[in-house]
Every structure is written in structure tokens, then in C-alpha cells.
């Protein structure tokens, strides 16, 4: 007879761990809308990639690659005015499906 142990994540079952640690917006209990934009970045043509990255640096107001990395992967929250500028950068290059789910 074998028994399996279920590991817990700070008192939460594994299947509920991701939901328990997801960031929530202030006022209601909905997840944040703008989580990252790897989806949009993956659609950029190779010839336009360096231009888009430069424009994203300017749109988000970051000076380092690591700072931009945190925005791309959703580790740093994109504010509404920044989201509008990011949308504009991608729309200028014909990309409309930007945000990660």
C-alpha cells in the first residue's frame, strides 16, 4: 500500500496556489488586466525588433534591459497611461493582440 503526500504552499493546496498568489486590483477582487506583453512582442518582425524595444523603453520610462524585462513578463504592473503608450507602440507595427492572459 502506497500513500502519496500532497505538498502545501504556505498552507494552500497546490492547485489553489496560483490563484492565491495572483495580484488583485484595489477595489474589486478581479486580477489585473495588464499582466505582460510577451504575446505582442512575439509577433514583432525580426527587422523591427530593436526599434520596438527602443520604443518600449521610452514608452515605459525604463533605462535598463532588466527593467523592461520585468514589464514584459508581468512582474511589474503596467499602469493605465503606460498601457496606452505600449498599445500605441504595437499598433504602429500592426500588432493588436498584445497582452498576456
Task: Describe, in plain words, how this protein is organized in 3D.
With 101 residues, this protein is mainly α. 45% of the residues lie in helices and 0% in strands. It has five helices and no strands. α3 runs antiparallel to α5. The longest helix is centred in the last third of the chain and has 13 residues, at 80-92. The radius of gyration is 18 Å and the shape is globular. Residues 11-24 have low confidence and may be disordered.
Q: Name the structural class.
A: mainly alpha
Order of helices and strands: HHHHH
What profile does the largest beta sheet have?
none
Mean of all residue-level pLDDT scores: 79
Number of beta-strand segments: 0
- Gross morphology: globular
Low-confidence stretches: 11-24
* Proportion in helices: 40-55%
Radius of gyration: 18 Å
Strand content: under 5%
Q: Helix segment count?
A: 5
Cα distance, first to last residue? 42 Å
What features would you highlight for this structure?
single chain; 5 helices; globular; mainly alpha; 101 residues
Amino acid at each position: 500500500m502506497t500513500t502519496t503526500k500532497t505538498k502545501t504552499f504556505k498552507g494552500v493546496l497546490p492547485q489553489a496556489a496560483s490563484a492565491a498568489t495572483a495580484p488583485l486590483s484595489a477595489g474589486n477582487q478581479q486580477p489585473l488586466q495588464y499582466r505582460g506583453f510577451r504575446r505582442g512582442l512575439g509577433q514583432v518582425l525580426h527587422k523591427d525588433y530593436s526599434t520596438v524595444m527602443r520604443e518600449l523603453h521610452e514608452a515605459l520610462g525604463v533605462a535598463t534591459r532588466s527593467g523592461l524585462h520585468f514589464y514584459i513578463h508581468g512582474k511589474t504592473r503596467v499602469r493605465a497611461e503606460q498601457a496606452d503608450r505600449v498599445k500605441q507602440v504595437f499598433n504602429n507595427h500592426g500588432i493588436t493582440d498584445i497582452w498576456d492572459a
